[in-house]
Amino acid sequence: MIGWREIATRTKRILRPGFHLLAALGCLFSSHVLAAKGGTGLTPEDVRWLSRITYGLDGATVERYRTLGRKRFLEEQLHPAGLAPSEDVQGAIAALGISQRPLAQILADLETENRRIQTLPDEEARQQARQAHNQTANQNAN
Questions:
Q1: Per-residue pLDDT at 68
Q2: Is 82 left (phi over 0), alpha (psi -120 to 50) or beta?
Q3: Cα distances (Å, whole numbers) of residue 41 to 34, 36, 56, 107
């Protein structure tokens, strides 16, 4: 016969992992419910929107959103201040061949070269042309 202590011990072992998950979900849910109910002064739509474009709601994010409004907050998220590359990095980027031609032109040239390679008479010639093409592309990237 199993005593009440044994039953309690077995029950704890079974429920403990689920309890931790349940507690974590409860905390997450309650924070969103409080935010949606006005604990932060945000509408449910604001809460959903902020949750989608940020890494989660916190006091600083909510305060910044209230201060700037949705449009300016989004602009700040997309174009943060102070993240421009240094002059050394800008010079290195400018020196890359890929940054000196429009992307559409680069893609058109790649497509033309791939078509030319496909028209070569045998597989060995196509393989050599692909290797030469890849080597040129790698040099242009460096």
A1: 94
A2: left
A3: 10, 8, 16, 49
At a CB cut-off of 8 Å and minimum separation 6, what does 96 contact?
Answer: 140, 141
Structure tokens at 43: 């509408």
3-state secondary structure 65-134: HHHHHHHHHHHHHHCCCCCCCCHHHHHHHHHCHHHCCCHHHHHHHHHHHHHHHHCCCCHHHHHHHHHHHH
Res. 30: pLDDT tops 60: no
Q: Which two tokens stand for residue 112?
A: 């033309």
Distance spanning both ends of the chain, measured CA to CA: 77
| Angstrom distance (rounded) from CA 75 to CA 78 | 5
pLDDT tens-digit readout, 62-85:
999 999 999 999 999 988 887 788
For helices 59-78 and 44-53, the axis angle rounded to 10 degrees is: 60
| Residue indicated by tokens 């910044």 | 64
